[in-house]
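Service request form, structural biology core

Requester: graduate student, group of Dr. S.
Request type: structure prediction, single chain
Budget code: on file
Notes: please return the result as structure tokens.

Sequence provided:
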Amino acid sequence: MTHTVVLVGLGATGLAMAESLLRRTDVTVVGAADKNPAVVGADLGTLAGLEARAVTVVDDPALLPGADLAIVATTSDLNLVVDTLVPLLERGYNVMSICEELSYPWSSHPEIARRLDETAKAHGVTVLGTGANPGVLMDTLPLLLTTLTQRAERVVIRRRTNMSRYGAILSKFGLGLTPAQFDDAQAVGKVVGHYGFEQAISALGAGLGWPLDAIEVGRVSPAIVSETVRTGEHIVIEPGEIAAVTHAARGTLDGRAVIDLEIMFGFFDGSDPVGAGDDYRIEGSDQVIELSSPAGFESFVSTIAAAVNVATAVVEAPSGFLSMGDLPVARIASKGAHLATARAPRD
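Core staff response, request fulfilled:
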């Protein structure tokens, strides 16, 4: 069965999702919305680097046609995105978003979580937050790994992730600023680091049955000041500007850090003492489980994959507010067989 999809938000991530979804055979994209005047009125296929698809971008989600699923890629802040999500649910869309704080907001935003759950159930639809992190890499994946020990006692994750393919979200990390500019921006709340630590820790703790005492999120801090020019897809980092930052958080139980997470976000090159990579350590009562990815899980690619692979599972899931851990593994696994050959734009 082919499901219909609309997209809300066509930044770098939203367009990458559009390009993938337009090439799939298990979904049909029937609408897209974005407030950017530069894309309103354009054909979505053309914007995504494919041939025209007769899908014209509108400036308001209220103008979108009916569909089985709405995918929202606008902001990391759940307080801001909730007013986009609720009207979509009320119109009968199943809704999926890569808003990091939507992944598991039952502790961080309990009133919003209840509102979304009640609205979704009242209209017989599903709402889900997904993405690479949170969504998979610091919650669902380590939760799955704990299956291999009878009693998990501690989870430690260290990620060093390449951010060179991202666009607007880079500002919240302070990448490309001088150290002085970073300090000023952080002081006024413009540099906040990673959204989603609290949600990932909450989801992992809940899945393990750990009644956590507290979740502590540290301040993001500069890790590498570049001595070279580093070119990403959307910005260039000059010498003297910050090329990588570190952000960490932990969940405590009985005063002990049982979930210990740290991420370095950066534009890495060969002159750096570290590079992209991911390391997992599950300390169990009967064995220690370690998983390493020397090159790291590429965050941009992984986010796109998580979103498009989960799309049909959201439509077919029970109504209400669900998390990635609520979905069967077989339903969210790669559906590459549904990815058709890319079609190039016509001359």
